[in-house]
Write a structure and sequence with these properties.
This protein has a domain of 101 residues: Orthogonal Bundle (T-fold), CATH 1.10.3980. It has nine helices and 20 strands. The chain has an eight-stranded antiparallel beta sheet with strand order 3-4-8-9-12-17-18-19. The protein is globular, with a radius of gyration of 20 Å.
């Protein structure tokens, strides 16, 4: 067992172990300095967006905990109020309920999030598709209950007819931002980038409060900056895709980046003896069935990493590696081949690896 480590649980993906370093997300030139050695970090954690969040802070006065917890809770509530598909009155839910074609106002941050998702969707040739909501719901991984039997092809085709990135437009003007759809039944699901989005926003919150040594996570997305309580860079350990919580696959030093992991082996259900993953392939309209069980991506922001890891999971090992090579992505993939797990990584990811 590695000393000084903390485990985080993600409902839909595999767990990640966080040791410590990361990213400057705001326009701030103050370099982080190591806190006093062996100081205890201030840890604030809880539930949000159907998963867990954790904020670890080094060199922060414990008397600030109440104020920080209030600010963190407010930020997460704001994010959830924008992009939740489970809250009927969120900005995104109201957009999904709207069946007209007039532009609908959104915040600048939400518009930027959708632009990021559309860009990754285009680069993955639709493998990462935030309009796949009707299929997510059909297969029982959205706000609606899981089906009692496997959907038929006609149901799948009907749901697919209500999807497509080409039907969603982001409008940026000096006076504001809007989302627009030209398909009445278009249903946008931002869960594929939501954890990264919330994580980046927590990091920005720390920066605004003048905190320079932190590690923040929402679900499987992580951002960190500076040093931990022992005066060492924060590091992140990727868990093996097993039920053993402390089975470490690899450890990385983020070096000013965000990281996110997506996996197909924990969030699933069974119907008539068949196992169905929560990751839906937009091309087939069905849950993925290939051998890739985990994809970890390191990107400049957690939002980007969160979007890329989903797209790579949809594509499968060979196509994911080809895409990583094409775009210079830092990716770490785990495939299940028989009873064994096989790992693949891009040269860009290897540059972040550290020895345990």
């Amino acid at each position: 067992m590695l000393s000084g480590t903390t485990w985080f649980t993600r409902r839909t993906l595999h767990q990640a172990l966080f040791l410590g370093s990361f990213t400057l997300l705001s326009a701030c030139n103050d370099a982080p300095t190591a806190p006093n050695a062996a100081s205890q970090p201030l840890v604030i954690e809880g539930k949000t967006m159907g998963t867990f969040y954790r904020v670890s802070l080094a060199g922060v006065d414990p008397q600030e905990e109440a104020s920080l917890r209030e600010a963190i809770t407010a930020q997460l509530a704001k994010d959830d109020g924008e992009i939740s598909t489970y809250k009927p009155h969120s900005v995104l839910s109201r957009f999904n309920q709207y069946t007209g074609n007039e532009p609908q106002p959104v915040s600048a941050d939400m518009a930027d999030l959708v632009v990021c998702a559309l860009r990754i969707g285009a680069l993955t040739k639709g493998a990462m598709d935030i309009t796949v909501g009707p299929l997510v719901n059909l297969w029982g991984f959205g706000p609606e209950k899981q089906p009692v039997k496997e959907p038929g092809q006609q149901q799948i085709d009907q749901a697919k007819a209500q999807t497509g990135l080409q039907h969603l437009t982001v409008i940026h003007k000096a006076e504001g931002q809007w989302l627009q759809k030209d398909l009445p039944g278009l249903y946008v699901d931002l869960s594929t980038v939501g954890e990264g989005y919330a994580t980046d926003n927590l990091a920005r919150l720390m920066e605004r409060r003048g905190i320079r040594n932190y590690l923040v996570s929402v679900g499987g997305a992580v951002v960190s900056r500076g040093y931990n309580g022992q005066g060492k860079p924060w590091r992140v350990a990727i868990q093996k895709p097993t039920d053993r919580e402390n089975a470490v696959q690899a450890i990385v030093d983020l070096q000013g980046h965000g990281i996110s992991t997506s996996g197909s082996y924990r969030n699933y259900y069974e119907v008539d003896g068949k196992r169905f993953s929560h990751i839906i392939d937009p091309a087939t309209g069905r849950p993925i069935t290939h051998k890739l069980v985990s994809a970890t991506v390191i990107s400049p922001t957690a939002t980007e990493a969160d979007g890329w890891d989903t797209g790579l999971m949809v594509l499968g090992t060979e196509k994911a590696l080809a895409l990583a090579k094409q775009h210079g992505l830092a990716v770490y993939l785990i495939s299940k081949e028989g009873d064994r797990f096989k790992t693949y990584m891009s040269p860009q990811f290897q540059a972040f690896l550290v020895n345990p």
